[in-house]
Amino acid sequence: MPAEPPPTRWSFGDPARYDPDDDLVAAGADLEPGTLLAAYRHGLFPMPSGARGEPMFWFCPVLRGVLPLDGLAVSRSLRRSARDFEVRVDTAFADVVDACADPRRPQGWIDGDIRAAYLRLHELGWAHSVEAWRDGRLAGGLYGVAIGGLFAGESMFHRERDASKVALLGLVEGLRDEHAARRLLDVQWATPHLASLGVVEIERSAYLARLQRALEVPEAGIFSGR
């Protein structure tokens, strides 16, 4: 079972009172494990402002991107590609984060503080990676935070064609259990690429309601070896 860290000293307030027209709902606080978990349980996630010395930004999108577990778009070619990879969980978490943080990637946002914070969450059993391997090499993957029935995806990468999609397919299949109807796969925003994979947008209020239901169910066996 994940280890519960000391509680945060910060308050994220009542999500029902967040600005209904702004994805950015807070600034400041810290990236301690207890703070991160409190944020996710309130529907928030952090992102650096991009300016040196500026506080951390916390977002709760007005329109949230989620992937229905029965809505992943799996083409025939992806099914064929999946046979060429081995999907693993939590065997190379730091490597996945580092690949997602590659400064050569456009619109990179994962800095040293974010990296260190999620490595701590991983050590406590809250953050996980799903990886696609081929011929002993890490070809792609994703990482995120699992709290009960919530999986909050943070980032994904690929070094070979379809590798990140194979990792996502492995994640979705691992979340399809007896609690699948109440699980919530959060991807933050619905980009055109994610929309092509089946991601949809739901209103903040709907997301928060689904989040509370998701937090009541057990963590998926994919993350605990069950």
TrEMBL record:
InterPro entries: Acyl_CoA_acyltransferase (IPR016181), Leu/Phe-tRNA_Trfase (IPR004616), Leu/Phe-tRNA_Trfase_C (IPR042203), Leu/Phe-tRNA_Trfase_N (IPR042221). The keyword Cytoplasm applies. Its EC number is 2.3.2.6. GO terms for molecular function: leucyl-tRNA--protein transferase activity. SUPFAM superfamilies: Acyl-CoA N-acyltransferases (Nat). It is an enzyme of class 2 (transferase). It is found in: Cytoplasm. Keywords: Acyltransferase, Cytoplasm, Transferase. It catalyses: N-terminal L-lysyl-[protein] + L-leucyl-tRNA(Leu) = N-terminal L-leucyl-L-lysyl-[protein] + tRNA(Leu) + H(+); L-phenylalanyl-tRNA(Phe) + an N-terminal L-alpha-aminoacyl-[protein] = an N-terminal L-phenylalanyl-L-alpha-aminoacyl-[protein] + tRNA(Phe); N-terminal L-arginyl-[protein] + L-leucyl-tRNA(Leu) = N-terminal L-leucyl-L-arginyl-[protein] + tRNA(Leu) + H(+). Functions in the N-end rule pathway of protein degradation where it conjugates Leu, Phe and, less efficiently, Met from aminoacyl-tRNAs to the N-termini of proteins containing an N-terminal arginine or lysine. NCBIfam families: aat. Belongs to the L/F-transferase family. This is Leucyl/phenylalanyl-tRNA--protein transferase. It comes from Nocardioides mangrovi.
